[in-house]
Design brief:
Blueprint (H helix, E strand, L loop, with lengths): L3 H29 L6 H19 L6 H28 L8 H21 L7 E2 L8 E3 L2 E3 L1 H23 L1 H11 L1 H6 L4 H27 L1 E2 L3 H16 L4 H21 L15 H15 L14
Antiparallel strand pairs: 1-4, 2-3
Amino acid sequence: MNELPQQLVNGLLLGSMYGLVAIGYTMVYGIVQLINFAHGEIFMTGAFGALTVYVYILPGGTSMWVALPLMLIGAIIVAVLVAVGAERFAYRPLRTAPRLAPLITAIGLSLALQQAVWAWYPEAKSARTFPQIPGGPFHIGNVTIQTGDIFLLTAAPISMAVLAYFVMKTRTGRGMQATAQDPDTAKLMGVNTDRIIVVAFALGAAFAAVGGVAYGLKYGQIDFRMGFILGLKAFTAAVLGGIGNIYGAMIGGIVLGIAETLATAYISDIPGMDKFGSQSWADVWAFVLLILVLLFRPQGLLGERVADRA
């Protein structure tokens, strides 16, 4: 029990990262009802965009306190360009096609982005070291927090606050809500639905890029395969919180992160369950939680916010 506060903080950190990526899934699905399985790779390209700024653009020896904001901007630019390009050239032509077509396209795009980074970035063939913020670790009672963790704990609530303001208070945000409820009626009322969809992809990519930078700062390395499993878990978080529900995506991510961390830490203490508490089983427990939610509360913890367009 002495380790419980530390495990809860670890789960909060992991869940915040899941939540940042899950926002992109839930925003896109809420508006165009598309499961963008390439979103995990957008998270990955954002991380490599940040690394590219640090390695190839900034002068050598640049302080991380100066470099980090520029890396964050580079990550967001790269991720947004990839997401908007995917929407324009891969998804928009299939918008009226049967749902299976864009789903298969998303899976193909996911593999293509992995291979593109693998081929284009010379050091991506193995895990690449990510620059770290100096200082730390910090100790609060029994809890230890790394400097990179502070970035994540700060970025996640700020991102949610900015998103909430944008969706609720701006004209474009209200257009997103209208398009999500009824795109045909929104178009008749003067809403440019194509522009709204592009904005949804861009916003989701920006939050994924923040998550990609946070991943690099937390784990100290990135590679071209990092987005696949984390993207699946982020999708699990979106379903867990209620697909189409922006706040549910973050709540679902935090619940998933805490559940995964506690399962990994404590299941091994149960007699006969020692092997099931290993780190290799962390992914299994995440999807076990998804199955349970789909069985007993398929609408998610906060409920779906997707209009019926049948």
